Every structure is written in C-alpha cells, then in structure tokens.
Amino acid sequence: MTAEELLERYAVGERDFAGVDLNGADLSGAVLREINLDRADLTGVNFTGADLSGGYARDHGAAYTKIRYAILRNAIFRDANVSYVNFFHSDLSFANFSRAYGEGISFEDACLFCAELNDAQIRINSFDGANVEGTILEDA
Questions:
Q1: What is the pLDDT of residues 61-85, one digit of tens each?
Q2: Cβ-based neighbour number of residue 100 at 10 Å
Q3: Are 29 and 49 in contact (CB under 8 A)?
Q4: For tag attachment on the chain, is the N or C end more exposed, with fewer CB atoms within 10 Å?
Q5: How much helix, strand and coil, in percent to the nearest 5, is found in the chain?
Q6: How far from 124 is each of 7, 25, 30, 98, CA to CA, in Å?
Q7: Global pTM?
C-alpha cells in the first residue's frame, strides 16, 4: 500500500490497516490517531513528526523505522519487533511495549512517562536525556 492510499482511506474514516505492507512509505507529519497497524510491515517507514497517538502495532516488523519527533501517547507496541527504531525526541507517554523485542533501539530525549516495558526483550542503544519517570520496567 502506498502512503497516499493509506492517507486517503484514513481521511474517510478507515482505521484498520492490519497486515498492510507499508515498506519504505513516507508518512512524515501524518496524523494517524487510533490507527491499527497490527501485523503490518513498517520496515523503513518514515513517521518523523507523525501523530500515532492511541495507535496499535502488534506483531509487526518495524525494523529501521524512523519515528523521530513523533507523538505516540498510549500507543501499543506489545509483542512488536522494534529493532533499530529511533524514537528520538518522541512522546511515548503511557505507551505499551510489553513483550516487545529487538536491538539497537534509541529513546534519546524521548518522553517515556509511565510507559510500560514489562517483559520487554530489547537492547537499547540510548536512553540519554529520556524522561523515564513512572516507567514500568518489570522483568525488562
């Protein structure tokens, strides 16, 4: 699916994009609140500056996805592969990363206020400058 097609369908009210292939799409600056990207291929997608608040992306491939300066409040990344995702300066308040896995993740200057990382198996490259107040790191 192209970025243009997704944006057109989202604009008319569709929110369920489970299983779509967005490999390499440019969705920078897009407002995609409450979007369902369950099992979607998000490899190399550019979400820089996007608003994905309340979005759902479980069991997806997001390797090398750019999610810098994005709004991801209450986003769900449960059971997701977040390898090499750069969440630089993103708002991940109340995001759920339970059982997420991957390596090379960067949360540099990100806000992880009250985020959940329960049972996460992730190798983080950088937490520099991150706000981790209230973050739940049980068994992470």
A1: 666 788 899 999 999 888 888 888 8
A2: 28
A3: yes
A4: N
A5: 5, 25, 70
A6: 31, 25, 26, 15
A7: 0.87
